[in-house]
Design brief:
Length: about 475
């Protein structure tokens, strides 16, 4: 095997690699020999099929495997011999190969740069915290009380109004026939809540207790049940009671109605919940502070391929957040032309046959430069965090991954097994799940090593957007 480095420009390396015909044949013979022990063929004892016949029958398919293995192993050797870590899959181009001849190919690869990690113990990190204000606890309790409305029966004879709760019996019919799920007795319904089909609640407003009549509605076209979607229906309704929302006091009764001992216990739960929310924001600001410090202290060239990939992801994310307005306009224009000029169908087909457009087409130079700067920062920080993790042997354990999968599964009640199988069968999805766990572990390690100063600020200051603050300062 002959490995020759052809060029080394920045982080790009190019090699020319040759495996002699004898080396290829040695691999080929070994592969066919192993296969010969397994092949069963009529007229021959197991393992006794002639090598010539094995080569004749399986030579071409085995040669494909031999070449793939030879290229993988020799390219890996080239990287190891030169102490290189690839930033992405190397680009392989076969220059020449014929049966009985040398295998020669070139390998182009971008490598992860060598860089020194800053002294983590010298980092001065600021941990911003906010104390839970009792006014915030009171506001949370007031919102809770508003959600826990206590409806009381209206004794006076008056029509139902928006905001009232009515007690009704109903029977729904399609074309005069009752349909499944369209009946109910003593059903409480808050008028104006949008709980029922559009138009149903509005027709009950102004009706009094004792009302018995029909309500005509149309199920929405996107209604969940296909047999009802878009259909006209008639509901026979009886209004049995009107209730109005009474004042819900913030007291021990509110707490006991929620299964707690007293108001003090409810206040503490609210206090803890708000504290957890503040803690999550504090954690985000701490992480941002650490990443900013790392970005300031590390400046090295990054692989162009990684930057290009990250750059494309940033643009796609931006387009998604903006509702892909340009694409919508294009589709609208296409629909307009299709509706009003059918004779130009051939021209439309031709227009859509152009090559794929550049990912940043339509962006001005300033926006391109901004996105590229963000992409470079993300790639550089990713490499720094990965190197800190590698040097300090930080790993995400199976139990941590399983916990994360279970958290994801809880978002899909009844489909937990399906979610778990999805991650087990999809390495890319598993990697996306593992990546933030690893990042958080490295951040925690850095914080442990760094000098941390805690600073108590207001929740308004804590929740300010750091980017907005930077722009204002600039």
């Amino acid at each position: 095997m002959k490995i020759e480095q052809l060029s080394a420009e920045g982080l790009k390396r190019e090699f020319n690699i040759v495996l002699t015909a004898a080396e290829v044949e040695e691999r080929m013979s070994a592969k066919l020999g192993e296969l010969g022990k397994q092949v069963q063929m009529k007229g021959f004892r197991p393992g006794k099929v002639p090598a010539r016949l094995i080569r004749q029958l399986y030579g071409k398919s085995v040669m494909g495997e031999v070449l793939e293995e030879a290229v993988n192993e020799s390219s890996q050797k080239a990287l190891e011999d030169n102490d290189l870590r690839p930033a992405a899959q190397p680009k392989i181009e076969i220059k020449s190969f014929d049966e009985g001849a040398d295998l020669e190919y070139t390998m182009e690869v971008e490598v992860i740069p060598d860089f020194e990690i800053t002294d983590l113990s010298a980092l001065e990190v600021e941990r911003l915290k906010a104390e839970v204000d009792e006014d915030k606890v009171t506001e949370a309790l007031e919102r809770l009380a508003a959600d826990q409305k206590n409806y009381v029966k209206v004794e006076e004879d008056r029509p139902a109004a928006e905001g009232d709760q009515v007690l009704i019996d109903f029977l729904g019919k399609l074309d005069g026939e009752p349909f499944e799920g369209g009946a109910g007795e003593d059903v409480p319904l808050v008028l104006g809540s949008g709980q029922f089909i559009p138009g149903f609640e509005e027709q009950l407003q102004g009706q009094s207790v004792g009302f018995e009549g029909e309500i005509n509605v149309t199920f929405p076209a996107e209604y969940g049940a296909d047999h009802l979607a878009g259909k006209d229906a008639v509901f026979e309704v009886k209004l049995k009671e009107i209730r109005t929302a009474g004042e819900t006091k913030i007291d021990d009764d509110l707490a006991t109605n929620m299964g707690l001992e007293n108001l003090e216990a409810l206040q503490q739960i609210m206090r803890d919940r708000i504290g957890e929310e503040y803690g999550q924001v504090s954690r985000m600001r701490l992480k941002r502070n650490v990443l900013d410090l790392l970005a300031e202290r590390h400046d090295f060239g990054v692989p162009e391929g990684m930057v290009a990939e990250e750059y494309g992801q940033i643009i796609r994310q931006s387009e998604a957040e903006n509702g892909q307005a340009e694409e919508a306009k294009t589709e609208e224009a296409h629909d307009h032309d299709h509706d009003h000029d059918h004779d130009h169908d051939h021209d439309h087909d031709h227009d859509h046959s152009h090559d794929e457009k550049p990912v940043d087409e339509g962006l001005d130079d300033e926006k391109k430069a901004e996105y590229r700067s963000i992409a470079e920062r993300r790639v550089r920080l990713g490499l720094v965090l990965a190197e800190i993790g590698r040097q300090n042997k930080l790993e995400v354990g199976p139990e941590e991954v399983n916990r994360a999968i279970m958290e994801q599964a809880r978002n899909f009640p009844g489909q937990e097994r399906m979610v778990m199988e999805y991650y087990q069968k999809n390495p890319d999805a598993m990697m996306q799940l593992r990546a933030p766990l690893f990042e958080d572990k490295v951040i925690d390690f850095i914080v442990e090593m760094a000098k941390v100063e805690e600073k108590v600020i207001s929740i308004e200051e804590l929740t300010k957007d750091p980017d907005a603050e930077d722009e204002a300062a600039a």
